């Protein structure tokens, strides 16, 4: 069977917000410590304590926004523990993640330095679960106030004269679970109270983010939208792709069966239903779509790598993860009217990471390469694709950028056969006559990059694209993510 889609270059949907390429870095396992922060005295080359190799890899990815400090860690984090001379900072237990010592060497100043070096917008997640209104209020004042005040003066004493600019601020994380086990009615009231004191100082305008539902908890969305729509700019959604039958048996990241591959893809595709249903509830209270849906935790979650700390959530990353990334980003493109930020969990060494480190070595994962290939969709406008006949193992999205170039992304998560693919090109003033493509694939379903062989899975040129009489034809290999540019 030949798969047929019709690409309507003139039927434009919404702009794909660059922030759907956002990342999430928590004080968890070896994400912040070792993965990002190694300290100024490390023998690994660094910039003021931040490792240069990871920095460069993330800069190349042009990550637009970075969420920190958690996750579950956020609702136990007391920001004043992480400022001032490092040697004097409080040492505490990271109760959620492995019970290890958190020395607070990476705090507010280090996070804003990281964002500055990356050219990424900071997204700070405040503490509702175990914090106070005053603590949250003072953090925002410390970060953003330019005048004379106790917190602005404290910031100056700690070496930062000018305030930082901060747009994105989250009022709690997973407050239905690790952030306080609250009922939505209770959290909605707390949200209204806490956000009141998240102030705009000077020109700094905060985009207030309320904690949204876990997966299919539609009741949570309903209550939050009913009670607090006018106090928020965004509501979050968390959904992880977990192939295993239960929480304690999630499956291996590398040793899995074909059935587990299929289950993984099924769970990843479920994001479409979740976004559709949560958005339709939001539509009832916010038909103008002023409030964004931010999927600020997504990605694969498997059993930890054998022999590693179970609390560190370290997992390898294969071509299967690349397919999950491609499909999920496609879904966000197709829902770009409501989904205006997303943050994959997590940047380095935790869950579906783009970078893995071991000592002074780093590896770019297949997921990294998908983010790099999909950069072309950032800030472009999503365009209509009519799926005339499309195999269930194929998933597509397309966008048009300011220069009029169209990019088509095709994920083929079948395990065996290539898919013959015809694209009818409609709605161009002058039909495109050139196409070039990039493909990420692997020889086996657990193909991956390791510290011994870091370049096994890398993007290649997609060969064999023909374009004639407004029809593009191509053969797409199984287990692959492709991006085709039409000009
Ligand atoms: O990303 C790991 C954890 O998953 C986060 O800390 C939490 O928010 C979620 O449950």
UniProtKB/TrEMBL annotation:
Catalytic class of the enzyme: hydrolase
Name the SUPFAM superfamilies on file: (Trans)glycosidases, Glycosyl hydrolase domain
A molecular function annotated in GO for this UniProt entry is: alpha-L-arabinofuranosidase activity
Q: Which InterPro entries match?
A: Alpha-L-AF_C, ASD1_cat, GH, Glyco_hydro_b
Entry keyword set: Carbohydrate metabolism, Glycosidase, Hydrolase
What Enzyme Commission number(s) does the record list for this chain?
3.2.1.55
Question: Per the database entry, which stretches of residues form a coiled coil?
Answer: none
Q: Under which pathway is this protein filed?
A: Glycan metabolism
- Protein name (record): non-reducing end alpha-L-arabinofuranosidase
Q: Which organism is it from?
A: Alkalicoccobacillus porphyridii
């Amino acid at each position: 069977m030949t798969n047929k889609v019709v690409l309507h270059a003139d039927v434009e949907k919404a702009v794909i917000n660059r922030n759907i390429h956002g990342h999430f870095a928590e004080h968890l396992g070896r994400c912040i410590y070792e993965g990002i922060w190694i300290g100024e005295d490390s023998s690994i080359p660094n910039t003021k304590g931040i490792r240069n190799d990871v920095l460069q890899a993330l800069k190349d990815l042009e990550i637009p926004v970075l969420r920190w400090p958690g996750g579950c860690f956020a609702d136990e984090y007391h920001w004043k523990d992480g400022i001032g001379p490092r040697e004097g900072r409080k040492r505490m237990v990271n109760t959620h993640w492995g019970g290890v010592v958190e020395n607070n060497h990476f705090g507010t100043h280090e996070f804003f330095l990281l964002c500055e070096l990356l050219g990424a917008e900071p997204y700070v997640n405040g503490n509702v679960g175990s914090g106070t209104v005053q603590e949250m209020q003072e953090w925002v004042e410390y970060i953003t106030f330019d005048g004379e005040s106790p917190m602005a003066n404290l910031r100056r004493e700690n070496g930062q004269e000018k305030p930082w600019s901060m747009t994105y601020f989250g009022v709690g994380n997973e407050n239905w679970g690790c952030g306080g086990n609250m009922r939505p009615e209770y959290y909605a009231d707390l949200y209204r109270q806490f956000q009141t004191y998240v102030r705009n100082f000077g020109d700094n305008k905060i985009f207030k983010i309320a904690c949204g539902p876990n997966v299919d908890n539609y009741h949570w969305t309903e209550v939050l939208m009913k009670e607090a729509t006018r106090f928020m700019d965004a509501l979050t959604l968390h959904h992880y792709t977990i192939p295993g039958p239960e929480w304690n048996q999630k499956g291996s990241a590398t040793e899995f069966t074909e059935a587990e591959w299929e289950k993984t893809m099924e769970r990843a595709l479920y994001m479409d239903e979740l976004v559709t249903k949560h958005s339709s509830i939001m539509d009832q209270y916010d038909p103008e779509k002023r409030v964004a849906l931010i999927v600020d935790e997504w990605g694969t979650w498997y059993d930890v790598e054998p022999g590693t700390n179970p609390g560190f959530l370290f997992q390898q990353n294969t071509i299967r993860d690349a397919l999950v990334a491609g499909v999920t980003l496609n879904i966000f493109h197709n829902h770009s009217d409501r989904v205006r930020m997303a943050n994959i969990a997590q940047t380095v060494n935790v869950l579906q990471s783009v970078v893995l480190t071991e000592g002074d070595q780093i590896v770019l994962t297949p997921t990294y390469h998908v983010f790099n290939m999909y950069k072309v969709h950032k800030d472009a406008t999503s365009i209509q694709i009519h799926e005339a006949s499309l195999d269930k193992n194929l998933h597509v999205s397309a966008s048009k950028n300011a220069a009029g170039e169209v990019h088509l992304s095709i994920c083929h998560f079948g395990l065996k056969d290539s898919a013959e693919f015809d694209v009818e090109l409609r709605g161009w003033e002058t039909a495109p006559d050139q196409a070039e493509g990039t493909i990420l694939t692997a020889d086996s379903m657990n193909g991956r990059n390791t510290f011994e062989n870091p370049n096994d899975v890398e993007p290649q040129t997609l060969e064999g694209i023909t374009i004639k009489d407004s029809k593009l034809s191509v053969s797409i290999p199984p287990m692959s993510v492709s991006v085709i540019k039409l000009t």
